[in-house]
TrEMBL record:
SUPFAM superfamilies: Periplasmic binding protein-like II (SSF53850), Winged helix' DNA-binding domain (SSF46785). Keywords: DNA-binding, Transcription, Transcription regulation. The keyword Transcription applies. InterPro entries: LysR-type_TF_proteobact-type (IPR058163), LysR_HTH_N (IPR000847), LysR_subst-bd (IPR005119), WH-like_DNA-bd_sf (IPR036388), WH_DNA-bd_sf (IPR036390). Belongs to the LysR transcriptional regulatory family. Pfam families: HTH_1, LysR_substrate. Residues 8-63 form the HTH lysR-type domain. Signal peptide: none annotated. This is LysR family transcriptional regulator. The keyword Secreted does not apply. It comes from the Bacteria. Transmembrane segments: none annotated.
Length: 302
């Protein structure tokens, strides 16, 4: 019989392949060779006398037995993650590392300043911050806190609303002089609209005689980019109208570089949540940082 600790190690490697359904992606994340990973999976299948994966040149699929093993391994992975979190937060002094995952816009607009001000009070606390547009699962990855822009925060985590913000529609004087000023939402169909690829439909709300009047406009434009900073730069260059988060456009409107349009409409409001696992909320550095973070948004609309 194989030594149990080696079998557990191989099953953990299997769970990573099963998560990605790819030997290459799993090997890259684990920083091991694909050939070694494949060998270890074959070994554990031999030990269990069960095929866990169906391999082909194009894809990897789970067998029925593989699905059962994966479900059990996810429980084990969560237990290991809980142990790691408990140990990392067992020291009640205000020191150690806080791991945060957040959207890129929140990292640049708010998070770095908030973390710096916290470290001025508690210099023994360090931060490891992951920013990007991907969503990390706190039930699977070792992050202490996550910032989420969502209308449905995860039910298996504690969620505290931080703030909310709107999108604005703006354009440069150069563009408006050339293309005209849109007066009604339907006019947007006749303009170059700079959009995120996933949100080409622009939804505008306004209250008319007590009723919510909704305009859902399918826009078009010369290009779409999944980075609002790039879209704002294109707007500043006179390439079209942009719909982007308020905090990115407000400085340009204040400086006169852009005009805000449709000010009587609400455009795609978003809620920002702080999300974290319940079992570590009593950590001293967690409690203090959460209080500090919430305090920064006390005056924000909810």
């Amino acid at each position: 019989m194989a030594k149990s600790h080696k079998r557990i190690e191989r099953l953990l490697l299997f769970s990573k392949v099963a998560e990605h359904l790819s030997f290459s992606k799993a090997a890259d994340e684990l920083d091991i060779s694909r050939s070694y990973l494949s060998q270890q999976i074959s070994q554990v299948e031999s030990e269990l006398k069960t095929q866990l994966l169906i391999r082909s040149t194009r894809k990897v699929r789970l067998t029925t037995e593989g699905q059962k093993v994966l479900r059990q391994m996810l429980d084990i992975n969560r237990t290991l993650l809980d142990i790691e979190r408990d140990l990392s937060h067992s020291d009640q002094s205000v020191s150690g590392v806080l791991r945060i995952t957040a959207p890129a816009f929140f990292g640049s607009a708010y998070l770095m300043q908030i973390c710096n001000s916290f470290r001025q009070q508690y210099p023994q606390v360090e931060f490891e911050i992951d920013v990007g547009n991907h969503l990390e699962d706190l039930a699977k990855r070792n992050y202490d806190l996550a910032i989420r822009v969502t209308e449905q925060p995860p039910e298996n985590m504690i969620a505290r609303q931080l703030t909310c913000y709107e999108h604005w529609i703006c354009a440069s004087d150069e563009y408006l002089a050339r293309a005209g000023i849109p007066e009604q939402p339907a006019d947007l169909r006749h303009h170059q609209c700079l959009s995120h690829p996933d949100w080409r439909n622009w939804v505008l709300h306004r209250i008319v005689k007590g009723h919510d009047e909704v305009s859902d406009i399918a826009t078009h434009g010369g290009f779409a980019v999944n980075d609002y900073g790039v879209l704002v730069e294109a707007c500043l260059a006179g390439n079209g109208l942009v719909r982007a988060p308020q905090h990115l456009l407000e400085p340009h409107v204040a400086a006169g570089r852009l005009q805000r349009l449709f000010q009587n409409y609400q455009i795609e409001s978003r809620h920002v949540w702080l999300v974290y696992p319940q079992r570590i909320e009593h950590s001293t550095r967690m409690k203090l940082f959460i209080a500090h973070l919430l305090a920064q948004f006390e005056s924000s609309p909810t």
